[in-house]
Amino acid sequence: MHSIAYTDPVYLKEAEMASRETDGLTDTYCARCHTPIGVLSGEVPPIGLENLSEISKKGIQCDFCHSVNKSTGIGNGAFMVSPDGIKRGPYEDSKSPYHGSMFSDLHTKSEFCGMCHDVNHPVTGIPIEATYTEWKEGPYNSTTQCQDCHMTPGVTHFEANPGKASGIGPYRDNVYTHYFVGGNAAVTGVMGSEVHQRMAEERLKSAATLALDAEMKDNEAEITVEVTNAGAGHKLPTGLTEARQAWIELQVKDAAGKEIYHSGGLDSEGEVDPDAVIYHVVLGDASGNPTMKVWEAESILLITGYYQRRHGLRSTILLYLEV
Ligand code: HEC
Ligand code: HEC
Ligand code: HEC
Ligand code: HEC
Question: In terms of domains, do 183 and 211 share one?
Fold first, then answer.
């Protein structure tokens, strides 16, 4: 997703719409995280792909991340980049005949990711994405960095990936992978990366566990669905939760197999049943109406599910059925 952060068709459409509706106010704001080199080199604005060099089209790429020499804080693209050509990374003993190398503690910490993985509306301050803050306020902050789950084969924990980071480098007990897989199994598929799509599906499957309990009380069935965020180091879902949603689909059948209750199904248009238990964020515009346009956000109307709970670990839903 980093390598396509600017060419991502979903991003391009949304950035175009934001630009049109704000007379270009969002242009460099959005692009700073989606193509940092495009902004730092002055190629953006204008937005779109026409004015962009090949390197800026690569979104968040090697040279950018490994040239970051300082963070000025959390969120909204709080990075500083050095023009000295020295590559920053996690090793103290890294020597390359091609470029200078330097140890950077920042690269080994969640604060590196937090420079971009917290997005606040620049005018109203409304949190639009809060993955870093969720991690920081959650139970993983002292044990597991973003890198441990997103840059190792462990998915839900650190798991060493021994090998060589470069053909001419030494053998190491762990070399961080660079798949950066999250939950996006849609765009990775559209962009033709089956490997990332498959990994995103696997990751989503390991994020939560479900438990079902049904109890008969006279003429009523009490059904408890318990969802546990078992694998994500932040809330579930996280990131752009105003555009993404997770929901529970529950179907109850009688002994003959006839459906007597159904929550969370899709209608013929592919819309989720509005009465379903949905986990997402609903933003409000200036008039207090729901909006999916993040640039219009002046309030948060609804935060459901895991989002509501500070550590987002467990949520229980009770349904009462008359039978
Ligand atoms: C999103 C930022 C980002 C991008 C893009 C990125 N890296 Fe990294 N890279 C990191 C971080 C962070 C670490 C250190 C992880 C740690 O120690 O916790 C790292 C580690 C490394 C290392 C040290 C060895 C290892 O893997 O542990 C090498 C070499 C490296 N990156 C090369 C590259 C190359 C080549 C590319 C492009 C193909 C690239 N990186 C793209 C962030 C990035
Ligand atoms: C320069 C800003 C920037 C930095 C630094 C950065 N990211 Fe990202 N990251 C992004 C953007 C922008 C996207 C979304 C690209 C898209 O959806 O088109 C993204 C996407 C991702 C995704 C895929 C999300 C999905 O929906 O599947 C993961 C996982 C991820 N980043 C993890 C990390 C981790 C871990 C670090 C720190 C080592 C990090 N990122 C550092 C900006 C950044
Ligand atoms: C304990 C392991 C773990 C840690 C720590 C962790 N993540 Fe995740 N992350 C996951 C899992 C599992 C998923 C897939 C489920 C989901 O989408 O929430 C995920 C999903 C994501 C996504 C994709 C969201 C989406 O809906 O597509 C992003 C972006 C992300 N993580 C970034 C980060 C950042 C940044 C950090 C550090 C601040 C971090 N993660 C820490 C396990 C972890
Ligand atoms: C502070 C950094 C930052 C800024 C500023 C930013 N984004 Fe993002 N954006 C991200 C990160 C990180 C993700 C990935 C989170 C996830 O996958 O849930 C993302 C994901 C997205 C996605 C989802 C793409 C997909 O394939 O699902 C869209 C669309 C998007 N951003 C549009 C925008 C627009 C439009 C703006 C400006 C109004 C903007 N972004 C500003 C960091 C940023």
Answer: no
- Beta pairing, strands 278-279 & 250-253: unpaired
Q: Give the count of domains, the chain.
A: 2
Strands 290-291 and 281-284: what pairing? antiparallel
In sequence order, what are the beta bridge partners of 225?
A: 212, 317
Closest protein CA for atom 42 of ligand 3: 232
The reply to whether ligand 2 has any atom less than 6 angstroms from the CB of 132 is no
73 with 158, same domain: the answer is yes
| DSSP bridge partners of 120 | 127
Is 200 part of a structural domain of the chain? Answer: no
How far apart are the C-alpha atoms of 87 and 61, rounded to whole Å?
13
Higher confidence at residue 33 or residue 252?
33
Q: How far is the CA of 178 from the centre of ligand 4 (A)?
A: 19
SS3 14: helix
Q: Residue 77 CA: which ligand 4 atom is closest?
A: 1
Q: Mean pLDDT over residues 12-29, rounded?
A: 97
Q: Which DSSP string do the residues of 252-278 spell out, in sequence order? A: EE-TTS-EEEEES-B-TTS-B-TTS-E
For ligand 4, the distance from its centroid to the CA atom of residue 256, given in whole angstroms, is 48
Q: Is 108 in the pocket of ligand 3 (CB under 6 A)?
A: no
Q: Which value, in Å, is the radius of gyration of the alpha carbons in the chain?
A: 22
Each residue's pLDDT tens digit, 173-229? 999 999 999 999 999 999 999 999 999 999 999 988 888 888 888 877 888 888 888
Q: What is residue 7's three-state secondary structure?
A: coil
Q: Are 116 and 33 in contact (CB under 8 A)?
A: yes
Give 302 Cα–ligand 2 centroid separation in angstroms: 25
Q: Domain of 266?
A: 207-322
Q: What is the rounded distance in angstroms from the CA atom of residue 40 to the CA atom of residue 159? A: 35
In tens, the pLDDT along 294-305 reads: 999 999 988 765
Residue 122, pLDDT score: 94
Is 64 within 8 Å of 81 (Cβ atoms)?
A: yes
The token duo for 65 is: 């991340």
